Amino acid sequence: WNSVIEKCEKKLAKWKSQYLSKGGRLTLINSVLDALPTYMMSLFPIPPGRNFLWQGNKEKKSFHLVKWEEVMTSKENGGLGIKNLKLQSKALSMMWLWKYANNNQMLWREVIGAKYEKEDNWITKEVTTPYGVSLWRSIRSLWNEVKSNSKAKVMDGNKTTCWKDIWHEKGNMEDLFPDIYNLIMFQQSTIADLWSPQGWNFIFRRNLNDWEIVRVAEFLNTVNTFTGLQPGDDKLWWTGDDKGVFKVNKSYKLMDQTDSAQVGLGSKYGRAESLTKSPILSGQWLRKQSLHRTML
């Protein structure tokens, strides 16, 4: 990141902070952040910094007026909307996991899969070795967040496991029917392994007891809502998008909403969106928040 940091330091030179208002600094910061190379951010964590916003002149010492988390909070949630580089880098890295899960023919996917082996049909095993794998290890560590916001769209059924993946509208079958799961053989079987036009083919470990038959019937009624296999590869469906496609900006907003606290702008300045058009109000907001904390 050294070359990128040097360019940012030139654009955010210290002398500029001495002559720009805080509203002007916010505008310049957002402009510089929008120009950052997204490809590098998708692979390597970016070192954050916040000095430029708070720098004063040589005669006057500057202070951090409010928590940085509030400055990074979206305008809709009452902040100033400076991009959270940690979340942006995270969302870009998650895009690689989405591509790995959904693009079977990519050469880089075959290389990664051969090196780290498959955990299931969607992703490699978690990387645990301490050397030589820092790039994929950091990306792979985000898989649980990708999977928790996705569901499987079943096509030919060859990638989606019946019990482990979320393919039914009610949720994961292992979680919905843990008692039946413990009775079933071949728990890693895919939909294609178990389903045919004639029905499902579940094999139990033993004969069922009378009280278990009711639960099995409930389970079968649930899975029988499946309408059948179709041509094409199974896909991960991103639940944060109407079309099921992973998008970095929507992923960022989803994580930002989760991480951000409602900090409030006050009725004096009207709607939060007005800050976009008025850097002056942004500077006034910072001073107001600082004075409010001082009085408290």
Automatic annotation (TrEMBL):
Name recorded for this polypeptide: Uncharacterized protein
Lineage of the organism: Eukaryota, Viridiplantae, Streptophyta, Embryophyta, Tracheophyta
